[in-house]
Amino acid sequence: MTNLREITRQIAKRTTQLGYDAWEWGEGVAWHGVAETAVKLGDAELMSAVVNWIHSHKDFQPSGVRHVMPGLAALTVHQATGDKTALELALRVAKMLETLPRSVHGVHEESKQTPVWVDYWYEIAPFLTTLSKVTGEERYSEWAAEQSIAYLLSCWDAKHALFHHAYYDLINQNSQWFWARSNAWATLVMVEMLTDLKTEKGLAAILRNVLSKQAAKLAELQNATGQWHTVLDQPETYLEPSASIMIALAFRRGAKRGFLDAKYSALADRAFQSCLEKVDEAGNLTEVSGETWPGDLVHYSMVPVGVYSWGQGFMALAGLEWMDDK
């Protein structure tokens, strides 16, 4: 792999080979990265792979928030190719989402026993704003704005300028620790909502304020390597490249789009280069933490690391972002 374009394509190609077949949130991240790479590189092989994945689920009936993220990949494919099955699946996802109960703050959830994960803010809101662009229906953007407010109420900690991993309706409180990947989801979705919801002036002002405070705190906590610890403010926990590349992507986009100071581009570059060193010759982003539930520090430190769909998808998206700059 001699240049960033080839590295990014290799990451996406490898992602298609790793068996991410289910219609689930993690697989959705992976195929989101593949779909965007296929479009931006004009790569027919990659596009064929993601179309085949979508068509393998043409009769799938989504039933929970974990099934929303693949809809974003489907919308990318529909926008690029006009594929009707992709749009039908995305509309089916939106219809399902409308039927789900809501948390005390208004977040869609599967049950009161299921925590409100801040991760799903990114998985729901960009899907809705993209669906609004595709269909011309403003209600989807309004829905994304409403969900954004609900997630801020659920997980933002103004005192510490970071997001909690989860909120529990049953006990009306947040999980204790500031997990890196949950904060990365939040940073990235705020940049996307500031981009997509410009007309929501009040919400945009709130998002700018929260983003600026969180970004300043994340800058303070960035490790000398350029990455972030899996529990952000606990340096005894390991460095985690999937969260790091997501924060890097958010910082780069935020600075380019005028939502963050230009100094964040340099911090993003450090993180990107550090994560790029974790990509092996096959195109795997290595040392990524597995699916993680809230727990104590020992729990966070014991989550196994390896190659995971969320690392693959966001590493491909970051490659595209830095490739565009060059």
Automatic annotation (TrEMBL):
<dbReference type="InterPro" id="IPR052043">
    <property type="entry name" value="PolySaccharide_Degr_Enz"/>
</dbReference>
<dbReference type="InterPro" id="IPR008928">
    <property type="entry name" value="6-hairpin_glycosidase_sf"/>
</dbReference>
<keyword id="KW-0378">Hydrolase</keyword>
<dbReference type="Pfam" id="PF07470">
    <property type="entry name" value="Glyco_hydro_88"/>
</dbReference>
<protein>
    <recommendedName>
        <fullName>Glycosyl hydrolase</fullName>
    </recommendedName>
</protein>
<dbReference type="InterPro" id="IPR012341">
    <property type="entry name" value="6hp_glycosidase-like_sf"/>
</dbReference>
<dbReference type="GO" id="GO:0005975">
    <property type="term" value="P:carbohydrate metabolic process"/>
</dbReference>
<dbReference type="InterPro" id="IPR010905">
    <property type="entry name" value="Glyco_hydro_88"/>
</dbReference>
<dbReference type="GO" id="GO:0016787">
    <property type="term" value="F:hydrolase activity"/>
</dbReference>
